[in-house]
Structures are given as structure tokens and as C-alpha cells.
Design goal:
The chain has 432 residues and is an alpha+beta fold. The chain has 2 domains: 311 residues, Rossmann fold (3-Layer(aba) Sandwich), CATH 3.40.50; 111 residues, no CATH class. 26% of the residues lie in helices and 29% in strands. The protein contains 13 helices and 18 strands. A 7-stranded antiparallel sheet has the order 2-1-6-7-8-9-10. A 6-stranded mixed sheet has the order 11-15-16-5-17-18, sandwiched between helices. Strands 12-13-14 form a 3-stranded antiparallel sheet. A hairpin with a 2-residue loop joins strand 9 and strand 10. Helix 3 crosses helix 4 and helix 5 crosses helix 9. About 2% of the residues have low confidence.
Length: 432
């Protein structure tokens, strides 16, 4: 389970910002529905991030995705002199050459781990791992540029310091050599999914694989059927596989294998005669289905997998191509004890303000990204701000207030009409 994530000096993030999945103590609404108990912690089942275009929403999920990829692959995919694919905040002289910062807190096997690292393009500068079974937190290892200090509680890492390249993570090296704790942590990262709503084609194979499993096919077909996209059945035929290089693998979110299979998918629809159902007709999925239908199909597999196995899924531009009622229905699946008994967690970005009014979200589940005057991204939750000198009430008109700018994180648009009037030969544009 995810507790908190912190990122700094990466893409549009200058100073560290923190996304927390801890339920805020003063907030009582939707307590049973939208939160769950995990050991000593009360955690949120979902979180949504709003913000203007270019405010940094996608960069937050990119930070999660990069951290996951680097943890899983740095010890085996990168070469000795290969650069680390971090991008520091470039709009300030104090950060453009400084290392990027990543830290994540999570629960695994009834223990809380706090793991993080700092890295620039050439090397990992710092790396740390702490563990807490109760309140006290103990260091398992601390890495500085001059060496790695390993505690007796992390005996599996001793002797492996010299096996760790400057551009690789020590945790990944220990896991590759079957260290129990390190392998357990890498399994947690493997269960952490990041999807990009505007690049949904890359998840198609994952959904298809679930369709080919007898245990998951009936549920997946019914899940898609209930989305009211007209599909009654699905047929899948495999075509020859294609190898992908490392650069192409990094460009996808499901980076589990260099072999990505291809499939031809046919959908089954009811056929009618004089308004009465009479047989069925097959359609080519890629050519004849709508873009919204194709997106929902492609993300349906990862969504169901996370719900069935209690995993974490992050989706950028979740609402793209989907009807607001369908988006709301999926969010409800995560915020429900009946459909989410294993406490899977959903984090997503969206522009769909309808969820602020009809999404049944707690104030601590709603987050915003906003650019500062120095063009850096700030991240804050609705539970933290005081727009009129007092915290936002649970009965506030959230959607209306957000659109009016009371919570920030909206675009300040220029006068498009005046610009076009000037361009078409109208009155000259006034300037200050």
C-alpha cells in the first residue's frame, strides 16, 4: 500500500513536493467507503489531481513511473557509462546541475518502508532504505558518494557494495542477487502500475492476455459489456511477435518484457431485424470501434487486475475519450468495500470537474498542481488550503468554487477574442 511519495528537482518540480495517501484525521466524511485500515495507518483508496495544462500533473505520474522503472531495471538494463534518464528542473541555475530527488513510503509484508535516492545524469549520489515494524524507524542501508553503510538488519546486502555501479541502485543489485528484503521491495514496485490515458494502445496486450486466461476472461468480458459500449463478445487471434529495444521499452509503462505480442481483435455486436435481435455481427476492433471504446478496452485489464489483487494504479488523463459517467463509475469501484475488498489504490489526473460534485470524494483525496511565479510546480490538497481564511467545508460547492478559481490550479487565459480581432484588421491591440 502506498503511504506517501516525494519528488524534487525533476521536470517541473523544483523543491520537493509530497503526495500523501494518509487519511486526514479531522475529515470524517466517507470514512468507511473511501478509506481503509492498514496496520497503524488509515489510508485513502483513491486520489485525484487537478490543474491547468502544463501545471505538472503528468510530471507527478512521470516521477512515479521513472522511479519504478529505475528500481526494477537499473542493475540489469543500464550499462557502465550509460546516463541515468533524470531531467532536473531547468529553469533555475541552482537546480539545473543538481541531483533529482525521489522518496516513497509504503507498506509491504506488514512493515513500513521508506526508500529513496538522489541521482543526476551520471550517478546515484545518495540512496537510503528505512524500515519500521511499529513506530520506530531503523536504517537498513545508507549510501553516500563515499560508500554504503549497511546495518546488521540488512545482512543480505553486505559484500555487494563493490558490485554496484555508480549509475545503478544498490537496492536493485541486492534484489538481483536474491536478497529477501530487496526482492520483496522490488515485488512491491512491480505491482505499481502507471498508465497514460493519451497513449492507451500500449496496454492492449495486457488486457488481451487476461482475455486468454480462463479465470479472468468471463469477468473482463462482462466488465466491458457493462460499460454500455455495445460489445457482447470478444475474439482474439495472435499474430507474430515483435522485439522492442530498450528505448522503446522505456517509452511504455508496462516494461516487463522485451517481447510484445500482437493480436487481431474482433468484437461481437447484436444484429437487429425490424427492431428485434436476430443474430450477431463481428467487427474489426482497430478499425470499427470508437476511440472511447478502444481506450476502455485497453485499460480494463490493468484496472481489473489491480482491483482483484490489491495493487496500485496511476492513470494520467484518465477522463480522456471516456464519458464522465463511466469515469465516475470506475472511481466508485475503488472507493467501495464491495468491489475493492483488497484495498487497491487509484491515483489519477483529470480535467473532469464533474467528479468534484458527483464523485463522492473526500477533501483529502482531491489534489491540485499549480505553477509558482518561478514556473515550478506546487502540489497541495484541498484539505490543506484556506481560501477564505478557513479550511474548506465538507458541504462546499467544490466544482463551482474550483472553476471560479477559489482553490487555484486553473489557467489564467488571455484575451483570445481581442487577438483575433487585431489579426483580422480590427482595432489595434492595446499594450501596457
Amino acid at each position: 500500500m502506498l503511504i506517501e511519495l516525494e519528488v524534487g528537482n525533476f521536470l517541473s518540480f523544483k523543491t520537493p513536493v509530497r503526495l500523501s495517501m494518509l487519511a486526514a484525521n479531522p475529515i470524517k466524511e466517507l470514512f468507511e467507503e473511501n478509506t481503509f485500515q492498514a496496520g497503524r495507518y488509515r489510508l485513502l483508496k483513491s486520489a485525484v489531481v487537478y490543474g491547468a495544462n502544463a501545471s505538472g500533473k503528468s510530471n507527478l505520474l512521470e516521477a512515479m513511473d521513472f522511479m519504478r522503472w529505475f528500481v526494477l531495471n537499473s542493475s540489469k538494463e543500464t550499462q557502465v557509462k550509460e546516463e541515468i534518464l533524470v531531467v532536473p528542473f531547468k529553469l533555475d541555475t541552482s537546480t539545473e546541475n543538481a541531483p533529482s530527488h525521489f522518496e516513497i513510503c509504503f507498506l509491504q509484508n506488514d512493515r513500513r518502508y521508506r526508500y529513496g535516492f538522489e541521482a543526476d545524469r551520471k550517478a546515484v549520489k545518495k540512496e537510503w532504505l528505512f524500515c519500521a515494524e511499529k513506530a520506530k524507524e531503523d536504517p537498513l542501508f545508507l549510501r553516500e558518494e563515499d560508500g554504503i553503510d549497511i546495518s546488521d538488519s540488512f545482512d543480505e546486502g553486505k559484500g555487494l557494495e563493490k558490485n554496484t555501479r555508480d549509475n545503478a541502485l544498490f537496492l536493485s543489485v541486492v534484489a538481483q542477487l536474491n536478497g529477501a528484503i530487496a526482492s520483496s521491495i522490488l515485488k512491491w514496485f512491480m505491482d505499481f502500475r502507471t498508465l497514460y490515458g493519451l497513449q492507451d494502445q500500449q496496454y492492449e496486450n495486457y488486457t488481451v492476455q487476461m482475455l486468454q486466461e480462463e479465470t479472468t476472461r468471463p469477468l473482463l468480458v462482462e466488465f466491458i459489456r457493462r460499460a454500455d459500449v455495445g460489445i457482447e463478445g470478444l475474439t482474439v487471434n495472435e499474430v507474430p511477435a515483435e522485439k522492442k529495444g530498450l528505448a522503446e521499452l522505456y517509452a511504455t509503462s508496462l516494461r516487463s518484457s522485451p517481447i510484445l505480442k500482437k493480436f487481431k481483435i474482433s468484437t461481437t455486436h447484436h444484429k437487429f431485424k425490424d427492431g428485434v435481435k436476430e443474430g450477431v455481427v463481428n467487427m474489426d476492433f482497430s478499425r470499427e470501434e470508437s476511440e472511447g471504446t478502444k481506450k476502455f478496452f485497453r485499460i480494463a485489464g490493468p484496472l481489473l487486475d489491480c482491483l482483484m489483487n490489491g495493487r496500485i494504479i496511476c492513470i494520467d488523463e484518465f477522463d480522456a475519450k471516456l464519458h464522465p459517467l463511466l469515469t465516475r463509475a470506475v472511481v466508485h469501484l475503488f472507493n467501495s468495500a464491495d468491489s475493492n475488498p483488497k484495498n487497491a489504490q487509484l491515483i489519477f489526473t483529470t480535467h473532469d470537474t464533474n467528479l468534484l460534485h458527483h464523485g463522492n470524494l473526500r477533501r483529502d483525496q482531491i489534489w491540485f498542481t499549480e505553477k509558482t511565479q518561478q514556473a515550478a510546480t506546487d502540489l497541495y490538497s484541498l484539505a490543506e488550503i484556506k481560501p477564505a481564511g478557513a479550511k474548506v467545508r465538507n458541504d462546499a460547492a467544490l466544482e463551482k468554487n474550483y472553476i471560479q478559481g477559489r482553490y487555484g490550479a486553473i489557467p489564467f487565459l488571455g484575451d483570445f477574442e481581442a487577438l483575433l480581432k487585431e489579426a483580422s484588421g480590427g482595432a489595434p491591440r492595446k499594450t501596457d
